[in-house]
Amino acid sequence: MADLIVLDPHAPIPLYTQLYRILRLRILEGQYAEGDAIPSENVLRDEHGITRSTVRKAIALLVNEGLVRQFRGKGTIVSYAPINNSVWNFGGFTDYSRARGQRPVTSLLEQATEDGANGPVLKLVRARGIAVEDVTLFLNLDTSWLSLKRYPGLDIFDFEKQSLYQVLRDHYGVSPARSELTLSVVAPSALTTKVFGDGLDVPGFLCATGDVFSSSDELVERTSVIYSPTLEMRVGTSWSTGNGQPPGA
Amino acid sequence: MADLIVLDPHAPIPLYTQLYRILRLRILEGQYAEGDAIPSENVLRDEHGITRSTVRKAIALLVNEGLVRQFRGKGTIVSYAPINNSVWNFGGFTDYSRARGQRPVTSLLEQATEDGANGPVLKLVRARGIAVEDVTLFLNLDTSWLSLKRYPGLDIFDFEKQSLYQVLRDHYGVSPARSELTLSVVAPSALTTKVFGDGLDVPGFLCATGDVFSSSDELVERTSVIYSPTLEMRVGTSWSTGNGQPPGA
DNA sequence: TAGTGGTCTAGACCACCAT
DNA sequence: TGGTGGTCTAGACCACTAT
């Protein structure tokens, strides 16, 4: 198949990012199946008329995300476990489930304004998950705090229907680029029971709390995400120091 | 100051890894302080007689580790919070504490052989932490399982004195290169109380369970690490897709 | 032997920041 | 204006795998 999507060297998005998104989509849609090799670096170079360095940078993003692994002499092989979530980007999960016909679901549990140190703050509590047939399975419980001074009028949107990040991008010109999170454990509460069910016999839930920043290093939101135990939190680490050694020694 | 350490193009370790280790050590030792800029890419290129691409690859490792951040027009700035642990590489912590005169401590709690599906297995339970003055503060509780069929004689070493990974490297020629971990929450137990103390009022502990592989993709060990709540588990994420957008959209 | 990924060179142009 | 990092090109040589 010829490529329908071509790279645009004049776009504000780097070529390697454009290629990364193309390859990522194909993997998530199953066009390249698990265990298969994606086209070789030289093939991608010729197909898209770019340098191998640029191809490699695109693939490096996939490797970092855990979607592929590279083997010298063999190729670049698709290798991801089902619902292989990096913890911190729920977006990956959304893509994955959508690509499989599952429907991502967001339920707005609370929307209120609070008084913060720097003026009024919008508090948003959302449960997110997927709908498979008639059953909705909630996978995380996301509490966000956003400055209404910085984002005036943000409280009139309906975040059950619209993505928070999309509103921020379209109406305020802000995109998240970076996060600083701290992992912790939270005890079960009435809210977690309501969202995740009471059939779970766990001592606590995994929780990531912290700040999200824009590319210009402005604070976008303060967030706290509680994860369902149903969601396997996989973490891949590669000590990419060239010789197979942890940095420790 | 001239560089005492020079890069060796004939070494089996890539040039960018060599440079990465040099820079990393300087940062951890405080030679480049927090908030300072490290030498520019062009300076490093000239100093070490290598290409800017190679310099950039070395710095990319530091960025990935969260030790520095790069700003166009400004420079590469050292930016890490004290005890900024990426969860999964405790080695980083060891380096950090040692560079500050704190003494890393390992206490062997259990060493036993068990029967596994593929023959006898060495089980190793170690508590690790730091000693500051006369007080020892344990920060994690690490349980490892290793095949004695694969590593005959491993059970005769004293792992209170010797690093497991060092023994594996020196006596069996195996180095860990990659891990696949799953995050979970474990309830407090007699063991966690003994190691972390009983003054903690937490519903559970953060735990990473999974496998560690060598560069040739052979299973090295099965491991389960429980982290002390004292240890802030910082997780930095950057959506390095070029335009400041999570992969999700 | 042909093809793969891993490393490295030697340039180029650009956007951004400090001066 | 000069220096910084961000992107990209067009090669090269190597180690390893498949056949």
Automatic annotation (TrEMBL), chains A, B:
The record ties this protein, via CDD domains, to: WHTH_GntR
Start and end of every HTH gntR-type domain? 13-81
Q: Name one Pfam family in it.
A: UTRA
Which PROSITE patterns does the record match to this protein?
HTH_GNTR
Q: Which residues form the signal peptide?
A: none
UniProt keyword terms in alphabetical order? DNA-binding, Transcription, Transcription regulation
Which terms does the UniProt entry file under GO BP? negative regulation of DNA-templated transcription
* Molecular function per GO: DNA binding; DNA-binding transcription factor activity
Q: What is the protein's given name?
A: GntR family transcriptional regulator
What is the native source organism of this protein? Answer: Rhizobium loti (Mesorhizobium loti)
